[in-house]
Every structure is written in structure tokens, then in C-alpha cells.
Specification:
The protein has 4 helices and 24 strands. By secondary structure, it is mainly beta.
């Protein structure tokens, strides 16, 4: 008997109105799946569910296992039923993977929600500042290099002025040149600022007065005297979080992040929704075309047509009124101006 047919039979038992049923599973959902290195949580969820953002409803968190939300390569995920609802449980495995006898054991890392190699180029190259923050006074600026040059690159020693921002705990500072105000297309209000980083510096310590010595660790574009600075991170952004539907809300895609105009899977966009709207990392939204009003050709009545679904987005980073969202999949090209809404809205 096919798995889905079996689950449909089992699903005849009473279930909670808000719970998953066998209909929410993919036709080819595996009964057992062994996690592989390179898997992401989103990809695994998509193996079991038609709507991967419903993974938290399927995932059976065992309180007797340390870090029950973490999934590792080698784990076996088993699909079963509880009171008519499908669940997936993890079978615990040993976390050590020796390469050869003489080598130290290699400790496996828990899988990420999304592919870091896709996300990092965006969140490392771009940042968001709240509208209330003045980009000209958020951190400091590059004064000069230890060697007299017009432009600077990785490895160069430089001097920066940080002012009161020197009290920040992190020694890592992003450089940027021209902050781009992102405005509400209707009101014209500034919702925040998009920053395109030119590089990442590591501040060593103070020299004279308010000058600090620093070393350029990464460059994304030529770094120049006068480039602004603000606190950053040298490590990859957090890429482990539970995908889940965004709260009931509607918003807009304001623009792409990068040089593209027609967007698809693996690209990043800026939304006019942020932390103050209740949005957080891992929230999933659906991109749709606008609803249209047409005249019924027979009755002449104005008829409201629903928007067409274009794709699925996941929030990666938020500011107060803006956020970065990654396009997880799409069936139509996604453009600036497209509407986004909670999949449960």
C-alpha cells in the first residue's frame, strides 16, 4: 500500500482542526530519510511537505534529546502518525566522523535552514539601517592608510576615527560609501537605508586621540579615504532557524538587492515590512501579482480578480521597517512592486 494511501486511512481518526493531515504531505514523502552533508532544513522540509514552511507542525521535538531542534548529517528522520497527524522524528546518531585513524575526529555541524553560500554574498555585501539612524554618524570613517594610497585593499593597515562608536563591543566594522534611502512608494517616507559595503575592517586599538589602527580583512569594492564605518560581524550570519509562516500581514517588494530587475530563486529582495510589523528571521511570505478589477463582459459588474501566486520568500534579516528576504522558489518572475502576504493570510 502506498505511504500516502496508508496515511490517508490513518488520518480518518479525529484530528485537531489546525493540525497537519496526510493531504499536506507530498505524494512521494519518504517514510525514512537519512540527512546528508550539504542538506538544508528547507530542502528536507520540501521532501515531506507541499508547503515547507509548515515544518514546525511536522517536526517532533524530543525534549529528552539535547538540542532537539538541531538536525545533523547522518540523522535518520522517520515519518509516522500521532492521533491522525503526520509527524517526523529524529533518530539520534553519533556526532563524530573520523576521516582516517590517525586524524582527529571531525565534528559534524548541524544543517542550516538555507544554503549559506547563497545567503552570505548578500548579507555580507549589504546592510540595513533604520530610518531613525543617521548614516553619517552611525559609526565613524576611514581617515588614511599607513601607506599613502588613493585606494586600499585586503591586508592594508589604515587609521579610522570612531568617536563615541568606539564603545561598540565588536572589533569588526563594515565600510560603505553612499547610503541609499529606501522610501515608501506611496508616502515618500524614508523607511530605512540600504548600505552597500566596500569592505570589512578589524580595529586593533586606539593610537592618538580618537584615531584607531585597523586592518582591512575583506574588500568587495575599492576602499577609499572617507568611507563610512558601522559595526559588523566577521563570521557568517546565523543560518539556523525554524521556517514558519509570517503573521497575518501584507506588504510590498520594494527592490532587488544587487543588479537584477527580474528575480528568481536564490536572489534577495527588500520588503517594506520589518521588526515593528512582527516580522522575524525565518518567516515565510508568498509573492503575488496585484489583484485586478475588471468589468464582467455579461453583467457589466466590476469584478475583483485574485492576484496570481509568483513564489515563496523567506525573511533572512530585519530592520525596523525593512527586511531582506530570499526567494526560495518561484513560478513567475518576481519584480519590485509585487505584493507579499502571509501564506496563511
Amino acid at each position: 500500500m502506498p505511504l500516502r494511501t496508508l496515511l490517508l486511512v490513518l488520518a480518518l481518526f479525529p484530528v485537531a482542526a489546525w493540525g497537519l493531515t496526510a493531504d499536506d504531505l507530498r505524494e512521494d514523502a519518504p517514510q525514512v530519510y537519512t540527512v546528508k552533508k550539504g542538506d538544508t532544513l528547507w530542502d528536507i522540509a520540501a521532501k515531506f511537505l507541499d508547503n515547507p514552511w509548515r515544518w514546525p507542525e511536522l517536526w517532533d521535538r524530543n525534549p529528552y534529546i539535547s538540542n532537539p531542534d538541531l538536525i545533523y548529517p547522518g540523522d535518520r528522520l522517520r515519518l509516522y502518525m500521532v492521533d491522525g497527524e503526520p509527524r517526523v522524528a529524529r533518530q539520534r546518531v553519533e556526532r563524530l566522523s573520523p576521516k582516517v585513524k590517525s586524524d582527529e575526529v571531525e565534528r559534524l555541524e548541524a544543517i542550516a535552514t538555507v544554503d549559506r553560500s547563497v545567503v552570505l554574498p548578500y548579507v555580507d555585501r549589504y546592510g540595513l539601517l533604520p530610518a531613525e539612524t543617521d548614516p553619517e554618524s552611525v559609526g565613524g570613517h576611514l581617515v588614511a592608510g599607513a601607506k599613502e594610497r588613493v585606494m586600499y585593499a585586503s591586508g592594508d593597515e589604515v587609521f579610522v576615527r570612531l568617536g563615541q562608536a568606539a564603545e561598540q563591543e565588536t572589533p569588526h566594522w563594515y565600510t560603505f560609501r553612499r547610503p541609499e534611502p529606501i522610501r515608501d512608494p506611496d508616502s515618500g517616507d524614508v523607511l530605512g537605508y540600504l548600505l552597500e559595503h566596500t569592505g570589512l575592517l578589524e580595529v586593533a586599538g586606539p593610537t592618538d586621540g580618537d584615531l584607531f589602527a585597523a586592518t582591512i580583512r575583506r574588500t568587495y569594492a575599492p576602499i577609499e579615504q572617507g568611507d563610512r564605518l558601522y559595526p559588523g560581524e566577521a563570521t557568517a550570519p546565523k543560518a539556523r532557524f525554524m521556517p514558519k509562516p509570517a503573521p497575518a500581514m501584507e506588504g510590498r517588494i520594494l527592490r532587488h538587492v544587487g543588479g537584477e530587475s527580474m528575480l528568481g530563486e536564490g536572489q534577495m529582495v527588500v520588503l517594506d515590512l520589518g521588526a515593528r510589523d512582527g516580522l522575524e528571521r525565518g518567516n515565510v511570505l508568498i509573492a503575488r501579482t496585484d489583484r485586478r478589477t475588471v468589468d464582467d463582459p455579461r453583467t457589466g459588474e466590476a469584478t475583483r480578480l485574485p492576484g496570481r501566486e509568483k513564489g515563496v520568500l523567506m525573511v533572512i534579516q530585519t530592520s525596523e521597517r525593512l527586511s531582506f528576504a530570499l526567494i526560495m522558489n518561484n513560478t513567475l518572475p518576481i519584480e519590485g512592486g509585487d505584493r507579499v502576504a502571509s501564506p496563511e493570510g
